[in-house]
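Appendix B. Raw example, untouched.
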Amino acid sequence: MSSALIVRIVGAGVLGVVGWWVWEWIGDTPDFLPWGLAATIVGVVVGAAATPYFTIVPLRLALVRLRLVSASAFLAGTAGLVLGLVVAALISIPLARISGWPGIWVPVALSALLGFLGVAVAVSRGYDLRRILPDTAHSSDIPARTDGQVLVDTSAIIDGRIADVSQTGFLSGTLVIPRFVLDELRHIADSNDSLRRNRGRRGLEILTKLRKEAIVPVQVLDVDGWENMEVDGKLVKLAKSLKAPIVTTDYNLNRVAGIQGVKVLNVNDLANALKPAVIPGEDMEVRVIQEGKEVGQGVAFLDDGTMVVVEGGRRHLNTQIEVAVTRVLQTSAGRLIFAQLKGH
């Protein structure tokens, strides 16, 4: 029996009893039928439908956040909570002698308020504690990373360049791979389509490389609290919950995440930014390998994969020629260079 079903049954029973109590409290008649039965049924239905959303979903999100909290921050928060509760207890000693509701609820309110303030102040000053007690996730001679986590999309894993980038040291924080992304990767690797199957297996190989060779830590996050939702939607929800950026090469995910205020680290944008600058009028040597779309055009490619459209290059197929750049067009898919034969 799943935990969600157990929670629904317990919630149905508890709210069913609550519905019966409410009927007894406001009912004008001792007869259970029909309004007592109706109140009980309403309680059962509401309990079965709503209980998971008030128990399982918040608990899963809380566990996700706790798994990503550093040891020093957790220790600081615990110390702040204990200190706040001790101060509240000392203040509440004289208040407890007051008769009536102030003697009960004022100490409770003080405990909640000072406990929260203790946690908030301690966590905000966690840097001072980290200077004394380094994060256990890192060795003692390596400074603790404080710039958070980065969620990795399926497309970025299959693309493979994220593994090379992680080895350079430009990425900081922890690369977080949600369980549903890993499940999607395995599903692609088991596909009947040979192309999808090869892409999925390549992604699993890249993931293995990431976990073994990457300088930054890699964490598989076992969370999937959003049923009947696509992987991209789950990833955006998780990113908003963790306030973490997403690494991807998926154009659609890039747009959807941007609209919802989630920061996206697009590997294609990084690759385009690192390509050598080319300006109109610059000369270069290229090898025309195919015909272009327009009459007389030839197409060549630079070493980094940039397409070069050569006017009048069709008659020089499979020939190394010297061209002059006429204009450069930057698109979301990459850079496109237009050139003409030198001397024309």
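End of appendix B.
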